[in-house]
Amino acid sequence: TNKNCALTSSDISYKELGDEEIKYLCKALTDTCCKLRCLNLRRNRNITDVGKQCLFEAITGTDWEVREGLLLCHSP
Fold it and tell me: What average pLDDT score do residues 46-66 get?
């Protein structure tokens, strides 16, 4: 969420993230300073339906889309 951040892609697959971490990611994804274009969250088995719902709500109405499991990318 830092305006100077240049991170455009992040692979945090297999990191055992849970719903609490997803809540922080959702906040960052909705921040106007966020420059991410692709976020790989696949194979994080601790994300429950609660975390998935949080992600869904964060990207609804945006140009983010879910590809291949929990791979989030901006649509072209």
Answer: 93
